[in-house]
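Lab notebook, design round three. We kept the backbone fixed and only want residue identities now. Task for the bench partner: fill in a sequence for the structure below.
Input C-alpha coordinates:
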Protein backbone atom coordinates (compact mmCIF):
# COMPACT_ATOMS: atom_id res chain seq x y z
CA UNK A 1 0.00 0.00 0.00
CA UNK A 2 1.33 3.39 -0.98
CA UNK A 3 1.92 5.95 1.75
CA UNK A 4 1.09 8.71 -0.73
CA UNK A 5 -2.28 10.40 -0.30
CA UNK A 6 -4.66 9.91 -3.22
CA UNK A 7 -6.16 13.04 -4.75
CA UNK A 8 -9.42 13.44 -6.64
CA UNK A 9 -9.82 16.69 -8.55
CA UNK A 10 -13.39 17.66 -9.42
CA UNK A 11 -13.67 19.86 -12.51
CA UNK A 12 -17.05 21.59 -12.60
CA UNK A 13 -16.47 24.63 -14.80
CA UNK A 14 -16.40 25.23 -18.53
CA UNK A 15 -12.89 25.18 -20.01
CA UNK A 16 -12.68 28.90 -20.74
CA UNK A 17 -13.87 32.13 -19.16
CA UNK A 18 -12.17 31.44 -15.82
CA UNK A 19 -8.85 29.99 -14.75
CA UNK A 20 -10.41 26.98 -12.99
CA UNK A 21 -9.70 24.43 -15.74
CA UNK A 22 -6.06 25.40 -16.12
CA UNK A 23 -5.53 25.57 -12.35
CA UNK A 24 -7.07 22.12 -11.85
CA UNK A 25 -4.78 20.63 -14.48
CA UNK A 26 -1.75 22.39 -12.96
CA UNK A 27 -2.58 20.86 -9.57
CA UNK A 28 -3.09 17.41 -11.12
CA UNK A 29 0.27 17.50 -12.89
CA UNK A 30 2.04 18.83 -9.79
CA UNK A 31 0.57 16.09 -7.58
CA UNK A 32 1.64 13.50 -10.12
CA UNK A 33 5.22 14.81 -10.11
CA UNK A 34 5.26 14.06 -6.38
CA UNK A 35 4.00 10.54 -7.20
CA UNK A 36 0.60 11.08 -5.62
CA UNK A 37 -2.15 8.95 -7.16
CA UNK A 38 -4.36 11.44 -9.02
CA UNK A 39 -7.87 10.99 -10.40
CA UNK A 40 -9.92 13.57 -12.26
CA UNK A 41 -13.70 13.85 -12.48
CA UNK A 42 -15.34 16.16 -14.99
CA UNK A 43 -18.86 17.05 -13.86
CA UNK A 44 -21.54 19.38 -15.21
CA UNK A 45 -19.99 22.10 -17.35
CA UNK A 46 -16.57 20.62 -16.57
CA UNK A 47 -17.39 17.91 -19.08
CA UNK A 48 -16.81 20.45 -21.87
CA UNK A 49 -13.11 20.54 -20.95
CA UNK A 50 -12.78 17.05 -22.46
CA UNK A 51 -14.35 17.79 -25.84
CA UNK A 52 -12.15 17.25 -28.88
CA UNK A 53 -10.86 20.20 -30.92
CA UNK A 54 -11.22 23.26 -28.75
CA UNK A 55 -11.27 26.43 -30.83
CA UNK A 56 -10.03 29.33 -28.73
CA UNK A 57 -9.00 31.76 -31.45
CA UNK A 58 -11.99 34.05 -30.83
CA UNK A 59 -11.77 33.92 -27.02
CA UNK A 60 -8.18 34.94 -26.43
CA UNK A 61 -7.70 32.05 -23.99
CA UNK A 62 -4.90 29.51 -24.21
CA UNK A 63 -6.10 26.11 -25.36
CA UNK A 64 -6.04 23.44 -22.62
CA UNK A 65 -5.91 20.48 -25.01
CA UNK A 66 -2.12 20.17 -24.78
CA UNK A 67 -2.34 19.93 -20.99
CA UNK A 68 -5.07 17.31 -21.24
CA UNK A 69 -3.09 15.28 -23.75
CA UNK A 70 -0.13 15.27 -21.33
CA UNK A 71 -2.11 13.53 -18.57
CA UNK A 72 -1.20 9.96 -19.66
CA UNK A 73 2.51 10.89 -19.66
CA UNK A 74 2.10 11.81 -15.99
CA UNK A 75 0.36 8.49 -15.26
CA UNK A 76 -2.98 10.21 -14.79
CA UNK A 77 -5.41 7.79 -16.37
CA UNK A 78 -8.20 7.69 -13.81
CA UNK A 79 -10.59 10.10 -15.53
CA UNK A 80 -14.28 9.98 -14.68
CA UNK A 81 -17.43 11.49 -16.14
CA UNK A 82 -21.05 11.00 -15.14
CA UNK A 83 -23.36 9.23 -17.55
CA UNK A 84 -26.11 11.69 -16.66
CA UNK A 85 -23.92 14.65 -17.68
CA UNK A 86 -23.14 13.03 -21.02
CA UNK A 87 -26.82 12.39 -21.63
CA UNK A 88 -27.93 15.86 -20.51
CA UNK A 89 -25.53 17.43 -23.04
CA UNK A 90 -26.29 14.95 -25.87
CA UNK A 91 -22.67 13.78 -25.83
CA UNK A 92 -21.08 10.36 -26.03
CA UNK A 93 -17.70 8.98 -25.06
CA UNK A 94 -16.56 9.37 -28.68
CA UNK A 95 -16.96 13.16 -28.40
CA UNK A 96 -14.26 13.28 -25.73
CA UNK A 97 -10.55 13.65 -26.37
CA UNK A 98 -9.41 11.24 -23.64
CA UNK A 99 -10.44 7.77 -22.53
CA UNK A 100 -12.78 8.06 -19.55
CA UNK A 101 -14.56 5.88 -17.08
CA UNK A 102 -18.27 6.54 -17.06
CA UNK A 103 -19.96 6.38 -13.68
CA UNK A 104 -23.48 7.15 -12.54
CA UNK A 105 -24.22 10.19 -10.39
CA UNK A 106 -25.16 7.72 -7.62
CA UNK A 107 -21.63 6.24 -7.70
CA UNK A 108 -20.01 9.65 -7.28
CA UNK A 109 -20.09 9.43 -3.47
CA UNK A 110 -18.18 6.13 -3.64
CA UNK A 111 -15.57 7.81 -5.82
CA UNK A 112 -15.25 10.69 -3.35
CA UNK A 113 -14.92 8.29 -0.41
CA UNK A 114 -12.18 6.30 -2.16
CA UNK A 115 -9.75 9.26 -2.14
CA UNK A 116 -7.87 10.84 0.76
CA UNK A 117 -8.19 14.38 -0.60
CA UNK A 118 -10.82 15.94 -2.84
CA UNK A 119 -10.17 19.31 -4.51
CA UNK A 120 -12.93 21.18 -6.32
CA UNK A 121 -12.40 23.59 -9.20
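Proposed sequence:
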Amino acid sequence: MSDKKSVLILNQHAPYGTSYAREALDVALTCSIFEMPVSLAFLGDGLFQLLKSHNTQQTGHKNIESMLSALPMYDIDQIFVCAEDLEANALSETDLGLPVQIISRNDLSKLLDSHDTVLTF
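Keep this in mind before ordering anything: The radius of gyration is 14 Å.
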